[in-house]
Sequence to fold (333 residues):
Amino acid sequence: MQDTIPEMMTAIAIEAPGGPDVLVPCEVPVPRPGPGEVLVKVAFAGVNRPDVLQRQGQYPAPPDASPLPGLEISGTVVSVGAGVGTLQDGARVCALVAGGGYAEYCIADAGQCLPVPDSLPLDQAAALPETLFTVWHNVFDRGWAIDGETMLVHGGTSGIGTMAIMLGKLFGMTVIVTCGSAAKCKRAREIGADHAINYKESDFVAEVARITDGKGVNLVLDMISGDYVPRNLKCLAEDGRHVTIAVLGGAKAHVNMAAVMSRRYVLTGSTLRPRPASFKRLLAREIATEVWPSVENGELRPVMDASFPLTRAADAHRRMEAGDHVGKIVLEV
Ligand SMILES: NC(=O)c1ccc[n+]([C@@H]2O[C@H](COP(=O)([O-])OP(=O)(O)OC[C@H]3O[C@@H](n4cnc5c(N)ncnc54)[C@H](OP(=O)(O)O)[C@@H]3O)[C@@H](O)[C@H]2O)c1
Fold:
């Protein structure tokens, strides 16, 4: 297969920090896989809010990562680096990548690839890794969620939110979400949320108290931060866990540390992209064991919003920033 790989490829570059128009097609050399890596001919690339933040100059690529945007891909392995024993040319995979997904070819760490079963279309496969790795790690590893517990998720119809609903339900949790419209609340319930609160019409703290009979939730998965944090803490049951994955509403928060102490709260959070490949490989192994069987048997499928051609990446970002999407946006390469 090696001789069919071209020297150059089309990719989407970020010309300068700015609006969607700074995403421009460019011709760049096709990367070659190093030890432990594979080269994937990309079929689809997932679009994530962190790509928007990177484009705006607020979330720079780690020093050792491709400066091109794109954190998840699906496609076919076309070249295998030294020491890769698990994958061969022709394998259908999806992968979490540290960058470079908006391109015809992308390097992936072999340990961060997951096999795409025949029953899973490649557009859906590309929509899984970023949210799956993020939600799995934050809800179950950091948030210690177990079946029978209740979780509050903000941004219930986001890529992350829809995955949190589905994983929560898959593992026996009660899932409460907040969304910014009645239509989004309806969609969140259709996706599986037990309760959806329109935060523009009601106070989510009061609603959570009502839904849980005053007991509160065991875990909050929060992408808002700012003034949501003290309100989130009011939603937590004793021994509750507060997990921060983004600060869309502001990075600073006033926290009542007396409540953290007396109610034994745990405040934690994480960002996936800068973590070392060794950590992401471990996560991939955990997901392969714990979650992938549900992908293989069709129980877990991403919620798909829209697909755009690679060269229209700017339109994909416009759609995400308009905020009307439900679930995942992907680019077809
Ligand atoms: N920590 C990590 O490792 C990690 C990894 C991946 C993603 N993330 C973060 O997780 C968040 C969700 O990512 P995504 O790809 O799922 O994004 P997305 O689909 O664009 O979702 C963002 C959601 O946030 C809600 N929202 C509330 N306040 C907002 C505001 N001020 N600006 C924009 N949206 C706001 C919107 O829902 P309503 O319309 O209902 O308000 C929207 O559904 C992002 O902040 C992203 O950076 C973190």
